[in-house]
Amino acid sequence: MAQRLNDQHQRSKNLPKLKVLLQTNIDNEATKSGVLVEQIDELVTQFESLKNLTLRGFMCIPNSSNSAQSFARMANIIKQYSNLDVLSMGMSHDLESAITHGATFVRVGTDIFGKRI
User: Fold this and answer.
1) Are 62 and 70 in contact (CB under 8 A)?
2) Nearest-angstrom CA–CA distance, 24 and 75
3) 21 is in which domain, residue-wise?
4) What is d(CA 17, CA 6) in angstroms, rounded to the nearest whole number?
5) What does R_g of the chain's alpha carbons equal in angstroms?
6) What pLDDT does residue 114 have?
7) Residue 16, SS3?
8) Residue segments in the chain with a per-residue pLDDT below the cut of 50
9) Counted domains in the chain
10) Is-contact 73 103, C-beta < 8 A?
11) What is the pLDDT of residue 10?
12) In sequence order, what are the residues at sequence separation of 6 or more whose Cβ sits closer than 8 angstroms to the Cβ of residue 8?
């Protein structure tokens, strides 16, 4: 997918680099998308060769039964990459914990729009 986003015909030449986050399946859940933790190093390296994309950081949606541990794990992972500065994790129900663990971007849709049916 990153290669496709990087291709010139997908994006006008006059636009700046597209800033992206790498979705991480932090708890290795079959019901969630994202790369596995074991794949992160390889993928971060691959982003260095993509001239039209800038990897800014990671995003994750942890299993609600252990979100604090998963947030802490993601915080430790991003520390390994000094050039990354965005950690998107946490939603309306767990945003305080996410922020405590270093989230720089939270999603609060339920608090704004209400519970989805």
Assistant:
1) yes
2) 12
3) 2-113
4) 9
5) 15
6) 76
7) coil
8) none
9) 1
10) no
11) 66
12) 52
For 59-88, the pLDDT digits (tens) are 998 998 889 999 999 999 999 999 999 999
Question: Would you state the structure tokens that stand for residue 14, as one six-digit string?
Answer: 């006059």
State CA 62 to chain mean position distance. 11
Residue in 50, 44, 28 with CA at minimum distance from that of residue 77: 44
Q: What is the DSSP string of 43-112?
A: HHHHHTT-TTEEEEEEEE---GGGHHHHHHHHHHHHTT-TT--EEEEEETTTHHHHHHTT-SEEE-HHHH
Give how far the C-alpha of residue 98 lies from the chain's centroid of Cα atoms, to the nearest Å: 13
Q: In this structure, what CATH number is given to the domain that contains residue 6? A: 3.20.20.10
CB 25 within 8 A of CB 36: yes
